[in-house]
Structures are given as structure tokens and as C-alpha cells.
Design a protein that fits this description.
With about 475 residues, the protein is α+β, with helices and mostly antiparallel strands. Among the domains are: about 70 residues, DNA Methylphosphotriester Repair Domain; about 100 residues, Homeodomain-like (Arc Repressor Mutant, subunit A, Orthogonal Bundle), CATH 1.10.10; about 70 residues, no CATH class. About 50% of the residues lie in helices and about 10% in strands. The strands form three sheets. It has a five-stranded antiparallel sheet with strand order 5-9-8-7-6. Strands 3-1-2-4 form a four-stranded mixed sheet. The protein has a two-stranded antiparallel sheet with strand order 10-11. Strand 1 and strand 2 form a beta hairpin. Helix 7 runs antiparallel to helix 8, helix 15 runs antiparallel to helix 19 and helix 22 packs across helix 24. The longest helix is centred in the N-terminal third of the chain and has 19 residues. The protein is globular, with a radius of gyration of 24 Å. It starts with a helix and ends in a 5-residue tail after the last helix. Its EC number is 3.2.2.21. This is DNA-3-methyladenine glycosylase II. It comes from Nibricoccus aquaticus. Its cofactor is Zn(2+). It catalyses: Hydrolysis of alkylated DNA, releasing 3-methyladenine, 3-methylguanine, 7-methylguanine and 7-methyladenine.
Length: about 475
């Protein structure tokens, strides 16, 4: 798109962060220059001049905005983000040092309102929810690495009482603390589901591809082939019921289950079930907005997470600009080419190192376009060589994860937001341009036409900080009730 003044001003009015760095906005009446995404009051067109660089804006006599910090963005620095990331690292390291949210506010140096805004923007959560997650992470570590009493673990993790610890732990992990402690000793366990969990929607998600060679649903039995963090292939089986999910797994013939494997399987299953997603809070927000229809009969709907981040990345690249059945066919052919066959005619996803050894010539006969083949192989090489560390992404701020992924050739805003929703579990993302989202908004709000990009941004804003769940509900809105 040619960057005319009209185009750039439209991007300023839209607050479009995708254009940050492509130009800078000078506001003649205030004497400042900003990023296109700046949250300050929008200037009138006649008071604006655009500059290709910060240096050009300063040469014109303007000074940098203190709200969006364009100079920091231009040189790759972001001191506000870095200060929040440092604070979050401290909370995660020693959650017991932060007995409550006011302590976090005082430590941050920001005002309460500003801090809550920064946590929503960069971590898609509130300080209270991030603190709770940090406490649970610490508790999980202590439960599996020590034999200390539960009351001691609760206190050292920062919980005010054993009962509060027990309630939160069971709600977000599907197990009691004592049950979680037993996990390393077994490769079968049962997770308790939240009340009114929409099992039929889970079934729909697990059976979306009837020809899949990585998963199958037969009645209430779901089986999938996985690739674990140490590259071990695993076969996972879930027995579904309205109140609980029974889990069992086995590894390939050359691998024996370990404590690490069992804990990873538990993490994968809880992510698949979306137990850590605040479905009820989103349902309350939708009703408050007068949009009860959006969540009717599925208030506990969760986003089913992909088995691995690599799986999500492959889906996001393969699925670009082609129809869903063809995307599934390409994925199947790639897995048949270099995946690992397991029992029950299922294949585990290939490792990034295996795909990295391919050339585009290997994928062209499978009907991959040359560009799509290049992207799949290139990102696999980044992962295999350690230039892209998938294990680091979930712990990053949403802002840092997004910037990391957007810097990779072949990943645009739609792909990155898809991965952040489906594979990283960030709560406030929208895959802008997604037809399921725009058609859902058109139906929900009774619009004459599907909203364009700017209208979609505006219409999705009220759902923050739960836009990922809003996206999931919009995907389901025009589908028959399962």
C-alpha cells in the first residue's frame, strides 16, 4: 500500500500498531511526534505532518511523545515494557513477597490505573490473576520436588490459607494438591471439569478433521499422537464425561515415561481443556455489554490449545490463503512424509529438525506452493538451530512474543494472533481479517455488511481483556449447536 498522507492519517485514527516505525506522526499544535498507535487524543488532519524517521521529526522542531515513546521504538528499546517485564519476573520468582495487589502497585512505581492498563496491554491479565498464576506455579514445583506438608507449601507459595490454596489449585489444574503430588508416580489420572463445562463443544473441536492422522474421536474416547518437549513421541487417550476427563498415555517403544513426561502431559491436557481460561468472567462481560446471545448455552466455552507451539506455527503457515480442507490435506501429507507412526494408525508430528532438512523440492510434489514450502522449512530451521526458542515464548509478555513472531518471515498479523490464541494461551488477541470473526460480528450485531479491518478493531475493543474468548465464541456463533 502506498503511504499517502490520507492512508497514514487513516492508520493514525485507527491506532494501527502494524504501521509503527513505517512513519511518525507530527502534531503541529502540540509540537510532538508520535507512533501511529499512540493512545493520545487524535489530532485533526490539518494539524498533522508525517515523517519517515524520528530524526526528521526532530529536525522539524518537534519533540518525542512521552506517552508512546517513538524514539525508544525506533531504536528497539521499550523501557516501560522492560520495567513491567522485570516486575513480573520478580513476582514469578518469589510470589510470597507480594501478599496483595497494592504491594505490586507500590513496587511498580506506577499508579494503580496505569499499572492495570500496562498488565492488560503487555500480559493480557490483571496483577491479581498473574500473582495467582505465579503462586500456583511455585506450588506445583514444591509439590513435585519436596515432601513438605501442604500447609507449608501453601504458605511459601503466598496463599493466605490452605483452603484458598486447595480451591484455586483444583479449579485451575483439575486436581487437588495431594492428587497432583501423586502424578509423577503414574501415567493415568483423572481431571475434574468445571461445572457446566460444554463437553459437546470440546467434542466438536477434537473431531474437526475426520481424516486426521494425528487424532481421532470415537464415541467418548479421544486418542492423539503427540511430540513431547524432548522429542519423545507419545500416544494420549482421553475418556470424556460431563464431570471429568480420564487421562492415560504411553511413549514410543524406545522411551520410558518419567516424572517430566507425566507433568508435561498434565500441562498439555489442562491447556487442551482450557482450564486456566476465565470463561465465566468473559460471559459476565458479554452480558454486561448486552450481548447475551454471544455466550448463550456455552458460557463455559474454552479455547482448545494445540498440542505444541510448533503444531500451531505449522497450521498458521499452511492455512494461509487456502481453504480449510486443502490446508488439512497439506498438513497430512507433511506428517506422512516425515512424522513418526505410532499405534492405531496415528502419526506424531515431525520434529523441527526433521523438517529443517527438507528442501522446497521435497514439498512441491505434495502441492505446497514454493513460498509456503520456503516458510515451513525456514521456520523449522530457526527452531532447530535455537534461533527461535519455542520454550521461551509462553513466559514472555504478549507484546514481546508478538514482536518475536512478527519478525519471522512468513508470519503476518493473522498468523501471529492465531498462534498466540491457539498455542500460547494469550487472552486478548484477535486474528484480524479472519472471516469467522467478521461474519460472527455481522451476525451478532446485525450489520448490513461484514466489518472491515478498522471496524473489526473498534467492535472487538469492548471485549478486552478477553478478546481471545470473544473470538472463540464468534467462531461458534453461526455454527449449529453440537
Amino acid at each position: 500500500m502506498r503511504l499517502t498522507d490520507k492512508t497514514m492519517y487513516a492508520r493514525v485514527l485507527a491506532g494501527d500498531a502494524d504501521y509503527n516505525g513505517r512513519f511518525f506522526t507530527g502534531v503541529l499544535t502540540t509540537g510532538i511526534y508520535c507512533l501511529p498507535s499512540c493512545k493520545a487524543r487524535k489530532p485533526k488532519a490539518e494539524n498533522v505532518r508525517f515523517f519517515p524517521t524520528c530524526e526528521a521529526a526532530r529536525a522539524f522542531g518537534l519533540r518525542a511523545c512521552l506517552k508512546c515513546h517513538p524514539d525508544d521504538f525506533a531504536r528497539g528499546a521499550d523501557p516501560v515494557l522492560e520495567s513491567i517485564e522485570t516486575l513480573v519476573a520478580e513476582i514469578r520468582a518469589t510470589p510470597s513477597a507480594f501478599p496483595d495487589v497494592p504491594t505490586i502497585v507500590r513496587r511498580s512505581g506506577f499508579g494503580s490505573t496505569r499499572l492495570f492498563e500496562l498488565f492488560r496491554q503487555h500480559y493480557h491479565t490483571t496483577p491479581a490473576d498473574l500473582l495467582l498464576t505465579a503462586r500456583l506455579t511455585t506450588a506445583r514445583s514444591l509439590l513435585t520436588q519436596t515432601s513438605r506438608p501442604l500447609a507449608s507449601i501453601a504458605a511459601d507459595s503466598g496463599f493466605e490459607s490452605l483452603s484458598v490454596f486447595h480451591d484455586h489449585f483444583r479449579r485451575l489444574t483439575g486436581l487437588t494438591p495431594a492428587g497432583f503430588r501423586q502424578l509423577p508416580k503414574q501415567n493415568t489420572f483423572t481431571l475434574t471439569l468445571p461445572e457446566n463445562y460444554p463437553l459437546n463443544y470440546l467434542r466438536r473441536a477434537l473431531s474437526r478433521d475426520s481424516d486426521s492422522i494425528t487424532e481421532k474421536l470415537e464415541g467418548d474416547s479421544y486418542t492423539t499422537a503427540l511430540r513431547l518437549a524432548d522429542d519423545s513421541p507419545a500416544l494420549l487417550t482421553l475418556a470424556l464425561s460431563s464431570a471429568s476427563i480420564s487421562v492415560s498415555f504411553s511413549l514410543g517403544l524406545t522411551h520410558s515415561p518419567s516424572t517430566t513426561h507425566t507433568l508435561e502431559i498434565h500441562r498439555l491436557v489442562t491447556a487442551l481443556l482450557g482450564l486456566d481460561q476465565d470463561a465465566r468472567a468473559f460471559a459476565r462481560l458479554a452480558k454486561k455489554l448486552g450481548l447475551t446471545r454471544l455466550v448463550k448455552n456455552r458460557e463455559e466455552l474454552r479455547i482448545v490449545q494445540t498440542p505444541s507451539i510448533y503444531d500451531g506455527l505449522l497450521w498458521s503457515i499452511i492455512g494461509q490463503q487456502i481453504n480449510l480442507p486443502f490446508a488439512r490435506l497439506l498438513r497430512t501429507r507433511l506428517i506422512q512424509l516425515c512424522g513418526t507412526p505410532l499405534a492405531e494408525n496415528l502419526y506424531a508430528l515431525p520434529t523441527p529438525a526433521t523438517v529443517a532438512k527438507l528442501t522446497p523440492a521435497d514439498l512441491l510434489p505434495l502441492q505446497f506452493s514454493r513460498q509456503k514450502a520456503d516458510y515451513v522449512i525456514a521456520i523449522s530451521r530457526l527452531i532447530a538451530t535455537g534461533q527461535l526458542d519455542l520454550t521461551a515464548l509462553p513466559a514472555m509478555s504478549a507484546t514481546r512474543a508478538e514482536r518475536t513472531l512478527l519478525a519471522i518471515r512468513g508470519l503476518g498479523p493473522w498468523s501471529v494472533n492465531y498462534v498466540m490464541i491457539r498455542s500460547l494461551g494469550f487472552a486478548d488477541c484477535v486474528p484480524y481479517g479472519d472471516t469467522g470473526v467478521t461474519s460472527g460480528l455481522q451476525s451478532l450485531l446485525k450489520l448490513d455488511t461484514r466489518p472491515d479491518l478498522d471496524a473489526t478493531r473498534r467492535l472487538m475493543t469492548p471485549f478486552s481483556p478477553y478478546r481471545s474468548l470473544a473470538t472463540a465464541h464468534l467462531w461458534q456463533l453461526n455454527q449449529p449447536i453440537p
